[in-house]
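As promised in the previous annual report, we have extended the structural survey to additional targets. Below is the entry for Nucleotide-diphospho-sugar transferase domain-containing protein.
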Amino acid sequence: MPAAPCSLIYLAYGSAALHAEAVYSLLSYYRVARPAAQVLIYTDAPAAFRQVLGERPAVHYPAVTPAEWYSWRGSSNKVYLLKIGVLTHAAQHYPGNLLFVDTDTIWQADPAPLFAQIERGQFVMHVSEGRLATGNELSRKIFRRLRGQIFKVGQREFAIDSATVLYNSGVLGLSSGLAAQLPGVVALADELYAAYDKHMMEQLAFSMWFGQAGAIAEAAPYVLHYWNLKAARPLLTHVFEQYAPHSLQAFYEKAEALDLAGLHKSEMRYRALPGWRRTLLKLVGRRWRMPALGQ
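The corresponding structure token record, generated without further manual editing, is:
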């Protein structure tokens, strides 16, 4: 492990369904990490986590006031910006190497090499989604809308052009020494939201800011981010409520049986089909659907 303290950070604010995702992700982390980093769970319901996780000396629940939660949403008042507030708070109170992950993640390998890269001054994001200009329909729409516009933050300028690369922000890693740059990311995101109010402006702001500073390391080999399976939340929440209060091992085994990794890949293959094929499959009743619980 690196010399500086390492923190794995989760944000589970507002929705009880996020508790199931966070606990499942954390249990998957404990199965691959040797040794495990300290864990910071930013939540408005720490008692709900303590009820199932118990008191663990390496798991902390930083105290956040309602005013802080609100201020972290930026002038654009977006819940997506909360993770920047969380990282800023963590840098101040738990300095070292910070690795933020969304709750809808499954660890597949020990992220110690990621912490080492962070300590060397590198930024980490989940995975490159390719150039904005040639990405999915929303990416291309954003590119057409904002191409050529200049966004100024302090002395820095950012432009969207054919070379702009979008990274998924389900994982964000940086050293606490670089956290002073995070207000700039918020300012850039606020400008992007003002120019075109689409949910992914937060990840575009991170991609542009980090990308201008240097190469971005990808966390994808270490962690799976099943961002496309929001429909799986009721399934995982049902399993969580039934098993986690009594046995974390049973909950983990049942969650594994849902095969979220396989469902993620299956849905992504469907998503990658040409539009005409997806339309045809919908017409014949063969569009991709989340399987029913127990099937």
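The longest strand covers residues 165-175. The mean pLDDT is 92. These points will be discussed at the next consortium meeting with the crystallography subgroup.
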